[in-house]
Amino acid sequence: MWPEAIFICPQGLNTPGLLTDPEGKSSGWQNQSDILNDRDLKFFDTMLAYFIAQYQVDQDRVFVTGHSNGGGFTYLLWAERGKLFAGLAPTATVAGRNRNKLIPKPVLHLYGEKDQLVPAERQKNTCEFLLKLNGCTDQETRITENATSFSSKTGNPVIIYKSPGGHSYPQSANQLIIDFFKKTKKGD
Fold first, then answer.
1. Rounded to an integer, what distance in angstroms lies between the CA atom of residue 161 and that of residue 144?
2. The whole model's pTM is what?
3. Average pLDDT score over residue span 9-15
């Protein structure tokens, strides 16, 4: 869908979850700093440095996306490494404890209106926070049946994608996220 892009999809280590898997028998990511010896933040830093050294990485076009626990890690990366990214696309999650560290950035937040694991009301609250953080105006543009873009006084638009489903990731969002990343560049 974007042949020029370098797409990295790492697998997290076994991690205790807040909503599921409290024993940490499945893979996941840390969702706040200063836990698990910041192993996932250190892994990200090492991984990014490696790709910058080994490939032609446009550092004005680095993005991050993740679903559910990966979406929580996306918000953590935004909070702790925000200046590195041109844009972010967390899905099926909330900003949680990281919201006070977020800096204005172009963002696409996707959530399911019937999500019972991460309740849609909590995700709507995160979306409202993102609109305020980015200085969005009331001017909105419908992009697709499920996605609306809000212009921003700071140049950091917010796209909210409301899936009619639950906690699952809708494959139809792939092209929207890629298109969002394609037209987003740091400093634009």
1. 9
2. 0.95
3. 93
Question: How many Å apart are CA 168 and CA 111, to the nearest integer?
Answer: 9
Place of tokens 């499920």: 146
Q: What is the pLDDT of residues 74-110, one digit of tens each?
A: 999 999 999 999 999 999 999 999 999 999 999 999 9
pLDDT digits (tens, 9 = 90+) for 101-150: 999 999 999 999 999 999 999 999 999 999 999 999 888 999 999 999 99
- Could you give the number of structural domains in the chain? 1
In this structure, what CATH number is given to the domain that contains residue 148? 3.40.50.1820
Q: Is residue 42 part of a domain?
A: no
Burial of 78 (0-12, 13-18, 19+ CB in 10 A): buried
Strands 107-112 and 158-163: parallel
Q: Which of 98, 81, 100, 125 is nearest to 31 (CA)?
A: 98
Where in the sequence is the domain holding 141, given as residue range(s)?
59-182
Q: Which helix (H) or strand (E) holds 73?
A: helix 69-81
